[in-house]
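Q: what does this look like with zinc ion bound?
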Amino acid sequence: MSDRFSTVPLPLSSPGTERTLAVRRYGRPGARPKAYIQAGLHANEIPGMLVAHALAQLLEQVSVLGEVVVVPVANPIGLDQRLHGVALGRYTFDRGVNFNRGFADLDDVIAAQVAGHLGTDAADNVALIREAQAAALAERSPQDALDGWRQTLLSLALDADIVLDLHCDQESVLHLYTGESLWPAAADLAAWLGCRLVLLADDSGGHSFDEACSALWWRLAARFGAAFPIPPACLAATIELRGRSDVDLDLAAADARSLLRFLQGRRVVDGAPGALPVTSCQVSPLTGVDRVTAPMAGVICHLARLGEVVTPGQVVAEIINPTAADLATARVPLVSRVKGLVWARAAARFAQTGDVVVSIAGSEPILERTGTLLGD
Ligand SMILES: [Zn+2]
């Protein structure tokens, strides 16, 4: 077994059980820049696991200048939650909590620790805050197994310069979510991956994993003001590696090569990445997403293709209720409210009333969308 491989136990497991995270580490511990990459946070999102595996194979063959930590299967709890042979993922079985919500908000504890010690040098402030982060996390007592799992992941990732959380959607083009404060600084990541869409928000709501690592920086910057410069020192992104069924050796190998080039460009890994690809990536505010829902239960018939640009009023899907007494009312068209990119579609082909059927990214905020921006 490589000394790069280790397992980290998850705390507060049920009696008689033990769960661990498999962790691969490259480079020297503490070296900068540090990149943290994980896959499968929602448990049944498999494409990222294969990409993490392919990336690990590449990392074995290169010189790592900083540090890279790879957690290829981030959620052993969720992966084990099977019902009738199917890993349902996304939510805990016992309380229905989304696995990508509720990561620790350490703002107040860290702010209290660094207040009075921040100065005018941004790099010094970053170092001070990273120390306070580690101390705040170490002092925190997880309340249950789920929280212990969250804390273990954060303890591996929180001090990283780069955090890449590999997910997938139901049916989807390759896209990513990141902070508005990290754009356009993160444009190289989107370009290397060939993202079709970048969705930006500084606060999506719900304390997702990527924002637990990144948003702290701009919230502290706002709290302490310009006299004490605090840069967005963690580039964190949730990368949606297409749809659930897009698990393919060639795709994964290509995605892993893209991530390696990104890491080379950031000098985490030695080597020349080559010229940054020119891509036609749309950048949208998360507030500009139109989630088209089913007004009644029925069979989903998608009409818009993934990656298609649609216009307001365009029919993107139909819901057909085969049990309607009057056949004239059995068919309901679903229309887009915005001009934008069809980036995700429901994988199921039967909708209950209110289910999201198509997601479309417009370039302007849709005014009534406020509060929590992520679908749960
Ligand atoms: Zn996910």
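The radius of gyration is 21 Å. The chain has a mean pLDDT of 96.
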